[in-house]
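Re-run requested by the PI after the first attempt was lost when the workstation crashed. Everything re-entered from the original request form. Ligand of interest: calcium ion.
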Amino acid sequence: MAHAVLIVEDEEDIALPLVRTLEREGYDVRWVDTGAKALEELAAGFVDVVILDLGLPDMDGLDVCRSARETGYEGAIMIVTARAGELDRVVGLDYGADDYLAKPFGLAELQARVRALLRRTGGHANGAGLPEGALRIDGPARRVYAGETEVALTGKEFDVLSVLAGQRDKVVSRERLMAEAWDENWYGSTKTLDVTIGRLRQKLEAAGVTDKVVAVRGVGFRLEGGSADA
Ligand code: CA
């Protein structure tokens, strides 16, 4: 699952580019414009990184920071501010923030800082601490992840992988894969299956997944590897 980023910023012109940039990078992004809403979101859980503006309409961002820590928020907090001299104050006092950035800042720098924070804290909420390359299949959502990164699969690739993962370390026959991923009345060439498996392998390998789809000659295929799907 994607890391969740909460943007706390009352200026739309600053917030929207941030939302777009971080969404493009694959984060699950939420945006609120007051300190009160930020604390509500944090209390609800599932936030890995907070990007926190200090000049909010209802409360001082530093108080948001302190309250978040007091109420048990353990994810990363990055403070951004345009107030001259404010960063010195933030750095000098312990409000529980992890990083600080002065406005105006470049989006590339912000992205780099967010990545560094996630590496350092290991993320907090969804899927935290998963080793890189661990294969995770979210069946209901039909999504597949390598560690924290989503692997984009076609519908058939997903179906084939799901069937194999359901029988991990066991051989699944070609017939069964064809029947489950296509349908029982499908009389086409099994070459389609080989093409689908080939693409699936390429995508898993490119994403750094440590599990392998192994061909068992004359029988079918088997998903092998260390990690369990959940
Ligand atoms: Ca502001």
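Saved to the shared folder this time. Helices lie at 12-24, 35-44, 61-70, 86-92, 107-121, 155-166, 174-181, 191-206.
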